[in-house]
Write a structure and sequence with these properties.
There is one protein chain. With about 525 residues, the protein is an all-alpha fold. Helix content is about 65%, strand content about 5%. The protein is built from 26 helices and three strands. Strands 1-3-2 form a three-stranded mixed beta sheet. α15 packs across α17, α20 packs across α24 and α21 crosses α24. The mean pLDDT is about 95.
Length: about 525
């Protein structure tokens, strides 16, 4: 495993430094076509080699099978190469590598600035590689437009946002000056994407989608079965929501009830952040008072505005975990600020989808005992490979599972907050339906946007952003409810206390659910 991880990190230095591995923070890595194809060949060799290894302990077997599941998924995706199709395969590593180190501050500032300057020098080459590698026959206009939205933030992000995170004025000025050539490269890249004509599809297709569910996620069923599960879950939740809506406004029309609930929202983006911070503290206190989990020593969850570069492509709250290969246990709950060019009405709609009655569910999901608690706790498990590889079917499934668990514990203590909890859950059922239908060619983008706006309580603008995300990130959207249902199933057969179940399951990592079930039984 150590040998494999050394190979893996060498080819992906941004991932390595993001996780806290030492020695990788001065380079972005090799983004040439030759490097991508070489890594694809080497993955096949690693799969063959690791498949023959005997594991000395059950935990070692889980580690091995975790890596094998990741390799099988990556090898399957070689037929769907994002590096030929999607600008974000190049843009996201640039943005992540520049922003995260200054957010996490694991090293002295002069070292952070030196590493950033070294990476800035490589930005023009990475963008050139993207221009060379994007295949007009494979790249989809929708994905290119998403990339264009990201790229347009590049100049300001590199020359202003990142230097502003540096406390020493001289170092900040030095970083801003070093960013100018990279900013010019971004200007040219924006012009390139604006004129780039392509005709590829974002639809993954049923065959590859089902392969990923079986081989990478180890779920044991295909896209069609997952779609049916989503439909059944939506119907069951619709019935629950009708009952909840009666308690809110005397009518079973839960969409109308949600419209009323969403009218009570923070007045500004800054106020939204402050109220999320207060709700995050309340969630932590509640979990601690009920003794539902063991809190890792030194954990802390900051509540901050979302990063500028993420605002054009992420319309919802999200989380940055502590780097698990370090001793840090500080994570960040990012509140979904809007891009600077949003109109007053667009900002208002964002605030409405972060209404006060919705905040308890979101704070539980992102912070306590959701992502922040899980990933802080998991970082102490001592099995390195499990801190490198994790699947959203566990991590997002866990965060949705704990929403339901806290409902059982009485956290959602008003009709409105309970209604919102159920609304978020039916939203995840709608995601299963839409994601599978989109990528298996059963639904158009327009139909998907209408579905999300009418079968979940999303504004048309938010629904549009959500569907764009599903098109760009196939199989991820169903992970929330699918994983939560699987974790509920595992919990039913567990014989210990609720706290011991949480500590053991979440401490095992972010494993494919079949492996997580094995870990709980050890």
């Amino acid at each position: 495993m150590d040998e494999f991880l050394k190979w893996y990190f060498t080819g992906r230095p941004v991932v390595a430094s993001y996780l806290g591995a030492d020695g990788y923070d001065h380079t972005l890595g090799d983004f040439t076509a030759a490097a991508f194809t070489a890594r694809e060949r080497e993955e096949v060799r690693w799969l063959e080699r690791l498949s023959t290894l005997e594991a000395p302990t059950p935990d070692d077997a889980i580690d091995r099978d975790l890596v094998l599941s990741q390799l099988r998924g990556s090898i399957a995706l070689a037929s769907w190469p994002d590096w030929k199709r999607d600008p974000s395969a190049y843009l996201s590593p640039i943005f992540t590598s520049m922003f995260t180190p200054f957010q996490q501050r694991l090293k002295p500032e002069p070292e952070l600035v030196a590493a950033a300057i070294s990476r800035l020098a490589e930005v023009p080459g990475v963008l050139t590689a993207c221009r060379t590698n994007l295949d007009p026959g494979l790249a989809a206009p929708l994905l290119v437009q998403r990339g264009l939205g990201q790229a347009r933030t590049g100049r300001n992000f590199l020359t202003r946002t990142v230097p502003a995170m540096v406390r020493d004025p001289e170092l900040a000025a030095k970083l801003a000056a070093a960013a100018e050539p990279a900013a010019v490269a971004f200007d040219d890249f924006v012009a390139f994407l604006e004129g780039f004509e392509c005709g590829g599809t974002w639809r993954m297709g049923e065959r590859l989608y089902s392969t990923l569910l079986r081989e990478r996620e180890m779920l044991g069923y295909d896209a069609a079965e997952l779609h049916r599960k989503g439909r059944a879950a939506w119907d069951a939740l619709d019935a629950e929501l009708r009952e909840a809506a009666l308690r809110v406004n005397g009518s079973p029309d839960w969409r109308a009830a949600m419209e009323t609930v969403m009218d009570d929202h923070p007045p500004t983006l800054a106020a939204m952040r402050e109220e999320y911070e207060a709700e995050t503290r309340r969630a932590r206190d509640f979990v601690m008072e009920r003794d539902l989990v063991t809190f890792p020593e030194g954990e802390e969850c900051l509540v901050l505005p979302s990063a500028e570069y993420s605002r054009p492509i992420l319309a919802v709250a999200h989380y940055l975990a502590p780097p698990p290969l370090t001793s840090s246990r500080t994570g960040v709950f990012f509140v979904p600020y809007t891009p600077d060019d949003f109109t007053e009405e667009q900002v208002r709609q964002r605030l409405r989808t972060n209404a006060r009655a919705q905040m308890p569910s979101i704070a539980v999901h992102e912070a306590y005992p959701g992502h922040h608690w899980h990933l802080s706790h998991m970082a102490g498990n001592g099995r390195k490979v499990r801190n490198v590889f994790r699947t959203p079917y566990f991590t997002e499934g866990w965060a949705l599972y704990v929403e339901k668990m806290l409902r059982e514990q009485g956290y959602f203590d008003t009709p409105a907050t309970e209604l919102c909890h159920l609304d978020f859950r039916i939203f995840r059922a709608a995601r299963i339906i839409v994601d599978t239908a989109l990528h298996c060619e059963d639904m158009t983008v327009e139909q998907a946007e209408t579905f999300m706006a009418t079968k979940a309580s999303l504004s048309p603008g938010t629904a549009k952003g959500e569907v764009s995300r599903y098109c760009a990130w196939p199989t991820q959207a169903p992970s929330y409810l699918t994983g939560a249902i699987e974790i509920d199933r595992i919990r039913e057969s567990y014989e210990g206390s609720l706290k011991s179940f949480h500590d053991k399951l979440a401490g095992s990592g972010g494993l494919p659910l079949g492996l997580a079930e094995q870990a709980v039984r050890l």
